[in-house]
Amino acid sequence: MIHGVELGRLGCRGAQLGPEGPVLLSEALSPTLAAALAGAPGPGPIVIAVPGTLEDAHRRQVRAEAEALGHTVLRVVSAPLAAALACAPPGKAGHFVVFDLGEDAFDFRVVAVDDAGVIEVRGAVAEGAVGGVAMDRAVARLLLAELGLRSEQATMQALTAAAGVARAALAHHFSVPIDCTLPSGRHIEVRLNRHRFAHCVQPLLDRLARLCHDALEEAGLRTDEIDEVILVGDGARAPWVRMFVGELFQRVPVPTPPGAPALGAALLAERLWAGAPPALLDGLCMTLGLEADDGYIEWLLRRGAPFPASATRQCEGEVALKVYQGERTKADECRLVGTYHLDAGEGAQVTFLVDADGLIEVQARRRGDGQPVPVRVEPP
């Protein structure tokens, strides 16, 4: 049986390929891969859809977990692209965007779909701290100011949690209560409506708009050249997000159902297992770089580069190469992927490779005879 799995920050969903196409094994999120595939008849070929911002170490971990369960992992893909594969109109070529807003990250892809249905990334951007939780914190800061509360960590956590409950309720109601007891014992009860919430999170939405325009510029496209807008993630299904995206692209966005990445992963698994060319050609959603001696980043592979991809550098002596992901110029403002230790001796060529699964490998060979040089990986 051919499987697809969607791995999210809050759990997993499993899908399998049946006679009528891919079907979800469970509508609800499962805590582990094993639980998500509990309804499957047994191990088989599998494609795993993961958040585009998922760290390299976690990608490796989920692949190893699936293999430990007896599955043959054909590919690890980004969830937005898997959802696009499941939901893109059949037989329709053109340019699409995938807007994936989760709880703690944002992932946006500009893709081209050809007549054969192959999806290729033309522009990509991803950023943490702009998802649903960031919106909850914005509401919490508003409440702190309005209620004259001190900005203490425990108080902020309580208000953020209450704001999260209210945000979920606002998807179904115009106005909802925020009712919580603070660690100090003080009880607060206020109301929050959609207009007030939208005003509160407008700076975050403005940030999302700038990121979308960056990816479109990278792809050489304007908003009026986009044929379809696909929404992925629970955050993207909220009414204010749908309205924001509709105004940004001047068209009605298409929300994907829960589990769309798992269904797309199952479709891709079927294609790969049959020996057909992959239907997804992914690209980096964050730039890959090295920390230089002055603490700044030396770019290796820029955001949007299609992978597999590689870059090389020359090294001498014992070195510790710190690899980062992110768009900032300073290393301490980017995400550390890992530190790669090697003894290059009198000289070695070091290759930084991003494979078809988006996993990062570092290899080294001596300059003179081409012999491999051992590389020790120190995780972040």
Descriptive overview:
- This protein has nine helices and 21 strands.
- It is an alpha+beta fold.
- The protein folds into three domains: 3-129 and 205-281, 2-Layer Sandwich (Nucleotidyltransferase, domain 5), CATH 3.30.420; 132-202, ATPase, substrate binding domain, subdomain 4 (Actin, Chain A, domain 4, Alpha-Beta Complex); 288-378, Sandwich (Substrate Binding Domain Of DNAk, Chain A, domain 1), CATH 2.60.34.
- Strands 12-11-6-7-8-13 form a six-stranded mixed β-sheet, sandwiched between helices. A five-stranded mixed β-sheet has the order 3-2-1-4-5. It has a five-stranded antiparallel β-sheet with strand order 15-14-17-18-21, with no helix packed on it.
- Strand 9 (175-181) and strand 10 form a beta hairpin.
The CATH architecture of the largest domain would be: 2-Layer Sandwich
Strand order of the largest sheet: 12-11-6-7-8-13
The CATH superfamily of the largest domain appears as ATPase, nucleotide binding domain
Overall average residue pLDDT: 91
Largest sheet: 6 strands, mixed
CATH class of the largest domain, named Alpha Beta
CA radius of gyration is: 22 Å
